[in-house]
């Protein structure tokens, strides 16, 4: 895949993946098209050599892998990890709010959301709805309104003279989006709106809405930005960018070596779930693939945890260590923290640097300022669960956890090229 094609396809992937369920569905379609075979955790597995497989849990996490030509216990596995979720506003179970003829929905803040950018945006709504259909069966249905359906209006500065100097956001009272105006006495429920949307999208006739997991998102599509188109702006770059890079690397790499991609849900809230990185999902897949030889396979394996990094912001340069300020379009960032907020060690970093140098590609390093706290990733969690040598790396970006984020057009493709080579290397450790 060439550079320009890679970025154009990335934009399509981002736009088709407004929620973790849609992201996994998009990845499933691409894996199916590439000849990968879906596995069901309830069934027996019979795995062939040099074949691609994938497993989905909860519809929002996925493990995809190629078995390779050799015995996995002696070849090891080249693993890449990312996460499907992003900070957002999720609809509450009993969300309807009617005030002065406005129909609004109560929302819950998911993850470490940068709240101010959510105001005055065209918002759409997507996610998973669990319903009882006309045949009396409980079914899941994905919905995506696709068009702007909601708005969170700011309070005018005339009514809040300190808005530019002392503004705070109360998530309970300030964030319910406005969806429409309704006449007095209107009894339209949110469940009614969901039933109508499901019928429109899939033709499914719903007897009752039993539950849902729905998120508001920025309705504006991903786009190239800059006088020379050197940036990409989009929602959910953290961390759908890494999901896309990992997927394209797995699909592009040769079938000779055992390689795996895991994209977990719930990283933004700690990863403790059945399908999160602290849960047993990946470990269960490896048990069934490797059997009694799992420990030997892990000892020969390496995990690259890909999650975006903080690029040095030209307006806030003092927020970075003076020797570790990653620049956009100057290469992926090796993330290091000796307190194990990142899982990188000198050996795993060396593996990446060596491959990158062989390909003539740039790379950078990041260490958080010693007087600031450090975020984390699925890297240390996965390393601790599996006992696998792990590297934390990511594309540098601006506006992390905002409703719209910014990356350079060069860095994603650079990481794709290195991960593709990593996944097809005969020996990585």
From TrEMBL:
InterPro entries: Peptidase_M18 (IPR001948), Peptidase_M18_dom2 (IPR023358). GO terms for molecular function: aminopeptidase activity; metallopeptidase activity; zinc ion binding. CDD domains: M18_DAP. One of its GO terms (biological process) is proteolysis. Keywords: Aminopeptidase, Hydrolase, Metal-binding, Metalloprotease, Protease, Zinc. Its EC number is 3.4.11.-. Pfam families: Peptidase_M18. One of its GO terms (cellular component) is cytoplasm. Its cofactor is Zn(2+). Belongs to the peptidase M18 family. This is M18 family aminopeptidase. It comes from Marinobacter similis. The lineage of its organism: Bacteria, Pseudomonadati, Pseudomonadota, Gammaproteobacteria, Pseudomonadales.
